[in-house]
Amino acid sequence: SDHMENIYGYLMKYTNLVTGWQYRFFVLNNDAGLLEYFVNEQSRHLKPRGTLQLAGAVISPSDEDSHTFTVNAASGEQYKLRATDAKERQHWVSRLQICTQHHTEAIGKNNPPLKSRSFSLASQGSANSPGVQRRPSQNAVSFFNVGHHRLPTGKRVPIMQPDHLVDVREMMSQAEGQQRDLIRSIECLPVSGHLTSLDQDLLMLKATSMATMNCLNDCFHILQLQHASQQKGSLPTGTTISWLEPKISLANHFKNGAAQNFPAEINKPASVREEQSIAEPCQLTREPEEVNPDEELEDICDDKEDDLGAVEEQRSVILHLLSQLKLGMDLTRVVLPTFILEKRSLLEMYADFMSHPDLFIAITNGTTPEERMIRFVEYYLTSFHEGRKGAIAKKPYNPIIGETFHCSWRMLKSDVATDAGSNFSAHTPSEQVTLSKDMEGQTDLDYYTVKFVAEQVSHHPPVSGFYAECVERKMCVNAHVWTKSKFLGMSIGVTMVGEGLLSLLEHGEEYTFSLPCAYARSILTVPWVELGGKVNINCAKTGYSASINFHTKPFYGGKLHRVTGEVKQNTTNTVVCRVQGEWNSVLEFTYSNGETKYVDLTKLSVTRKRVRPLEKQGPFESRRLWQHVTESLRDGDIDKATEHKRALEERQRNEERLRAETETPWCTKYFLKEGDGWVYHKPLWKTVSAVQTQQTDTN
């Protein structure tokens, strides 16, 4: 390759907490596939201080700044390096990635897959290998009595008929049982002693056996698809095929609302059988449903995630999971253990960002474009604190495709700031309860209502759409978010790809905005959430914009959860407001007239959302859909929660598979695809525009 040149130069290398960063002279040896470093350029003719094999390595630009990157070798060794600027970093990263890819592919070509043979952990190294020294007379294969069978060789196997598929399914079931026995035997070993459950070779054996079974299941499914495609169109109505999951009638395959019946399994709880089945057709109509806010009741659910609970007890499981992940690995399709879950869906988490509806409505009350932009920034920065449930970082449920969440908020008109001098409300929790009770006797004219709806519009990639509106104030917000999660070593990063649009119809203004990245840090100890990245808010009509930086904690010192930002007029480049502080604590707003305002988010009043009771919710509404998982987590029954969660995931996979086989596209319920985004089917700007057009025609 033209780019396979040897490059060299000085980079800073992080050594340890004591020594810190040091300049070292690095050489990329493309021919040998090595990254070497020396104390300085003059010592280049001497033996290198360190060498990394690049075959199988992962080169990862760091998200903490534009200069740092890491080289993670297949051996587990890691170099954390820093270039002088972003351009130099890109030069090194691109050349390292080219070299890594070249040598990784060369190893694959020179080492074809081995034929079926006996496998022994002891045979993986020499007699002096650490594995053999630890247990010279015993290996994992002899300990667990694992057997391998050679498949008969001969002519190419013809396409299997249904009876052959049944035989294969039976053999695979036996293999799955043996694999479960193997895993159980490993996990029953003591955590200390001669042979432990955390032995590196045994962890690798667990991961390999699991990956093998997953691969076999994928191959089996390909055979099923192959057979089904041959028979497509020739089957009489009512004919069934034996799939990997329970039999499904082809005449009643899932078509965004058609009935689908799974045979009940006697050994499973009724609630699990309910999750694996599909509700009646009349309940699954894809027609948008108008939710009456009067049916919604004030939410009394308060699931704070301040207790480590099962996370503390299941640390070995987390260690095992981490052993199977690579730096930079996409976690979208990785099934994470149930005990790290929050007791709510991601769709409901988006709703909790709207927990200050008074500040949301107050945006349109600003008397000038400058004031409205500042109010939007104030609201935006106060929304993230309530979006997190407690100090412990846990993961919301991954929404099922077609899942929806509805809620609303009611706000007394007297509690919404109208002029620039109005301050943030800071009612205590007891005062907030009193306000809620006082509102019960009010008429519709005394309060504003903010309605919210969210829908999971795509499964791969996972995309959510959400929309909120206040009809009385002619304002609404529409957003779509694609959550991309990556493994970053001792943390998990989630990038929120997408865009939001706030429409103030009274002023004819539209504000576009993005969302910051989120990080779950210290996942082996006490996990906590950190926000990071730069977001922008723009209003093309008024020429005002805001730039907000969520700062991740630096490697040394520094504050947690720091945020800074400024609002400016683009035409004159004049800064009209600056903000600094912590997004989960105290924010300081400094205005162009010299005034300063402090907002303590821990004392800011929270308006409880209103949600329909479970019995009035549809089968795909978040709380009803996940109710058995949530109840089991509240009871501390992780096994039962896992069973219910698995049932939902299996059902989703079945439906997705059937739609692919029958080439049936998924139809969303509330959101429509427009370009690269998703827009609510009946946004307020269309409704208001239609009414104004009708009035004009009448006049």
Automatic annotation (TrEMBL):
Q: Which domain of life is it from?
A: Eukaryota
Q: Where is it predominantly found?
A: membrane
Q: Where is the composition biased (Polar residues)?
A: 117-136
CC annotations in GO: cytosol; endosome; Golgi apparatus; membrane
Q: What molecular function terms (GO) are annotated for this protein?
A: sterol binding
| Any one GO biological process | lipid transport
InterPro entries reported in the protein's UniProt record:
OSBP_sf, Oxysterol-bd, Oxysterol-bd_CS, PH-like_dom_sf, PH_domain
Where in the cell?
Endomembrane system; Endosome; Golgi apparatus
SUPFAM superfamilies of this UniProt entry?
Answer: Oxysterol-binding protein-like, PH domain-like
Question: Which keywords has UniProt assigned to this entry?
Answer: Acetylation, Endosome, Golgi apparatus, Lipid transport, Lipid-binding, Membrane, Transport
Q: Which residues form the PH domain?
A: 4-101
Q: Where is this region: Disordered?
A: 104-136, 637-658
**Pfam families in UniProt:** Oxysterol_BP, PH
UniProt lists the family membership as follows:
Belongs to the OSBP family.
Assembly notes: Heterodimer with OSBPL9.
Give the protein's function: Plays a role in regulating ADIPOQ and FABP4 levels in differentiating adipocytes and is also involved in regulation of adipocyte triglyceride storage. Weakly binds 25-hydroxycholesterol. Interacts with OSBPL9 to function as lipid transfer proteins.
Q: What is this protein called?
A: Oxysterol-binding protein
Native species? Herpetotheres cachinnans (Laughing falcon)
| Name of the gene this protein is made from | Osbpl11
